[in-house]
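User: My notes are a mess, but here's the protein and zinc ion's SMILES. Can you give me a structure?
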Amino acid sequence: MPELPEVETVRRGLEALVKGKTIKQVNVRYDKMVSPNPDEFKSALKGKKILDIERRGKYLIFRFSENLSMVSHLRMEGKYAVLPHTEPLSKHDHVIFELTDGSDLRYNDTRKFGRMNLVPSGKELTVGGLATIGPEPTPETLTFEYLSQRLRSKKVGMKSFLLNQSNVAGLGNIYVDEVLWLTKVHPLQPSNTLTDEEIKALRLNIFSELERAINAHGTTVFSYLNAAGHAGSFQNQLNVYHRQGKPCPRCGTLIEKIKVAQRGTHFCPHCQKLRLPND
Ligand SMILES: [Zn+2]
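Assistant: No problem, the inputs look usable. Here's the predicted complex:
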């Protein structure tokens, strides 16, 4: 699933490719992907200009003329591509925004899990997970005070805490494993047992890891591509994710993989020791 660095990379690509362009018409080939219903969706977007593309957590927010916004979540496999309108459609192109300049913005999704919700601007925070989303992982919005208070108010394992978008927006399976390794915290460490020093380090590691990943245009694990069809390269900088059985880059101990909250979870058993609350 694309996480914040991948969605931000998509956003930047879309900004460069379609910002300022006008929609001639929209073709919806999988009705359940859009809201409201396809007829309303198509008639509302006809003739609208794409003013901007923003991001909140893992959600893209398209801003159109006449006070319209569209919240788009790529879920597992969603991708946008900009192609000449004359290019044949592929089987998994489900929503096609035909632009007046002769190009198409096409949304392709092999798993069909992605969703697009069109709402009046200002109402986007009522859509799906945006209604309860936590702070963006930036120094200004994810403060030490917020994070320490939130961690201490819960007694969940750290992997589950960081995956929960209502605690912190944007992190998913890859970056949670990486950030916990950087911070030397076990994925099952109860959130209310982190020391102030660990919370400070965790916060800084979240910022630096996401920044490095954005600079590398995200991680290409399965089929993620940015809007221009390029793969990201951050998979070459991962320390633990998908590295089970390989040596920890810090201490040489073999990386282990366990299941936490139904997610494959990678960690170094030497660097990330589980501390029980009474230790
Ligand atoms: Zn290690």
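The pocket of zinc ion is lined by residues 248, 250-251, 253, 268, 270-271 (CB under 6 Å).
User: Great, I'll file this with my notes.
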